[in-house]
Design brief:
heterodimer, A: about 160 residues, mainly alpha, 3-stranded parallel β-sheet, globular, B: 3-stranded antiparallel β-sheet, about 15% strand, binds iron/sulfur cluster
């Protein structure tokens, strides 16, 4: 262990974070109305691909970003948890729309609506709005990229496990 | 050379008896790109052949009816918008019509014009979405891009009238929430000029494409008897060849005064009532919507855009039922009033629920890939199925 190792480690961090933040692969996972806006963000006009985040994957095993777009019901909550656990580390979650943030318009009488997806999975970025505009989602993704860029890439003895808060 | 066929057959016969094959239970969804939301289909397959496909719903049950009982009449409107989030305008129009007939509100002519123009635009937007996602299901990503590109233009118009892109709260009880200005009328005109030739482009790109044809014709055939058994309406019924459109046969609003045709499936490329027929009906309907809007745009009468209704709506004791033609079929609202400011009961008869219930019948003995084609052509929105 020489003093030089540290320098290499820091560079590693930078390189890995740079790579990860610019090639986020979101999970194709629409729940309700917000999903339509998520699709619109990925489509022609807003073109999420410009931000290095357009490769929507249909299987959680190939994805590292989960955009929870829509109302999370109690029946769906356990499935979301399962999908989250199937995603390989490191992984991030964006909660899109009031519904997945806190129950949205269904917060009061919605006996079958989970009041916030953060009750089942950890959330990195919350996007407000019902539904949020595509620009808002893009902003959220850029914020997430900023967050990834300052993250410590190599943690733990094996692999690059995400630091648990 | 002579082959002994009897001898050759014997071992495979034996094999058939001794080989034990099991059905495979395949779980499709609730996270699946082709189920158009959170639908789970429990598929029993025998090799590549689907034996049974049971749709399991309820992953998006958002307690619509419970909400309606606890908020006042106007506050139900946002929830109505969120039922079928691809056709919010049509939904809230149906709800507004029910309340108006319950309370006996006369809707001004100008409001009727605006309503019909806007809901036809919404129909185009919804069918464009269906075109895009169906293309995506069939492996044509370009269709998705094209559909969304042109849908954005309609959303721009909606944004300028209501301020929102997807869920508008625009149709109001007694009319519309805001008036439309000449600039918006011009915007709609420009859009129509742009859009009309596009439909042919879409058809050339996808509808008559050889691969698309092979994947959709003779697949998911619904005959009229099945339609009547399941109570199917809208595109499903018209795809099976019956000319039934509430705008024509049971006209509401000012649909009596406009001219348009009801396109039906003809079995042109395969069997009557197959997936392709339903697809072409949607494509043709877009052109008919354009026709309706064109007839109305120039003659929007002057006057108020909303009838005078109080902030609090208290209809007399009674009940009302409205049925309107949504992009997905006949949407009904049954409302019971107990004389208070809140509805006693709001029941929504959703077309998508009927459509999805046919899935098992449609998918008996088809390939797994054809199951995707069938689900796509039903054009369901889970928000409306589960409510
Ligand atoms: S936040 Fe609003 S738009 Fe998004 S899923 Fe909930 S109700 Fe729909």
């Amino acid at each position: 262990m020489g003093p030089g190792d540290n320098v290499v480690m820091t560079t590693m961090d930078d390189v890995l974070n740079w790579g990860r933040s610019n090639s986020l692969w979101p999970l194709t996972f629409g729940l309700a109305c917000c999903a339509i806006e998520m699709m619109a963000t990925g489509a022609a006009d807003y073109d999420l691909e410009r931000f290095g985040c357009g490769v929507f994957r249909a299987t959680p095993r190939q994805a590292d970003l989960m955009i929870v777009a829509g109302t999370v019901t109690l029946k769906m909550a356990s499935r979301i948890r399962m999908l989250y656990e199937q995603m390989p580390d490191p992984k991030w979650v964006i909660s899109m729309g009031s519904c997945s943030n806190k129950g949205g318009p269904y917060w009061q009488e919605g006996y079958h609506v989970l009041k916030g997806v953060d009750r089942v999975i950890p959330v990195d970025i919350y996007v407000p709005g019902c539904p949020p505009r595509p620009e808002t989602l893009i902003e959220a993704i850029m914020m997430l990229q900023k967050k990834i860029k300052v993250q410590e890439a190599a943690l733990g003895p094996i692999g690059f496990a995400r630091k648990q808060a | 050379m002579q082959t002994d066929t009897t001898h050759a057959l014997t071992p495979s016969d034996n094999l058939k008896e001794t080989l034990r094959t099991d059905d495979l239970l395949l779980n499709m969804g609730p996270q699946h790109p082709s189920t158009h939301g959170v639908l789970r289909v429990v598929v029993t397959t025998d090799g590549e052949i689907v034996k049974e496909a049971h749709p399991e719903i309820g992953y998006l049950h958002r307690c619509f009816e419970k909400h309606s009982e606890n908020v006042d009449y106007i506050a139900v409107l946002p929830y109505v918008d969120r039922l079928d989030y691809l056709a919010s305008m049509n939904n809230s129009m149906g709800y507004a019509i029910a309340i108006e007939s319950l309370q006996g509100i006369e809707v001004p002519r100008r409001a009727e014009y605006i309503r019909v123009i806007i809901s036809e635009l919404q129909r185009i937007a919804s069918h464009l979405m269906s075109y895009g996602t169906y293309g995506l299901d069939m492996g044509a990503f370009t269709a998705f891009m094209y559909g969304f590109r042109d849908r954005e233009m309609i959303l721009d118009i909606f944004e300028s009238i209501s301020g929102a892109r997807l869920l508008y709260n625009y149709m109001w009880i007694g009319g519309t929430y805001r008036d439309i200005t000449p600039e918006i009328v011009q915007k709609i005109k420009d859009f129509l000029v742009y859009f009309k030739p596009k439909v042919e482009e879409y058809n050339n790109l996808v509808t008559y494409n050889k691969i698309f044809l092979e994947r959709t014709r003779n697949i998911g055939v619904i005959d009229l008897k099945t339609c009547h058994t399941y109570g199917l309406t809208g595109v499903m019924l018209r795809g099976a060849g019956l000319k039934w459109d509430l705008r024509k046969d049971h006209p509401y609003s000012i649909y009596k005064e406009v001219e348009f045709e009801v396109p039906v499936g003809t079995g042109q490329m395969g069997t009557l009532g197959d997936c392709w027929d339903r697809h072409i009906v949607r494509m043709k309907e877009m052109l008919q919507s354009v026709r309706i809007i064109e007839q109305l745009l120039d003659g929007i009468p002057e006057g108020p855009h909303r009838a005078k209704v109080g902030k609090v709506i208290k209809p007399p004791i009674g009940e009302a039922y409205s049925r309107t033609e949504c992009p997905r079929g006949e949407l009904g609202f049954y409302i019971i009033s107990d004389g208070s400011g809140k509805p006693y009961r709001v029941r929504c008869k959703s077309p998508c629920f009927m459509n999805i219930s046919t899935l098992n019948e449609l998918s008996q003995g088809v390939m797994v890939a054809d199951l995707i084609a069938t689900i796509g052509s039903l054009d369901i929105v889970l928000g409306e199925v589960d409510r």
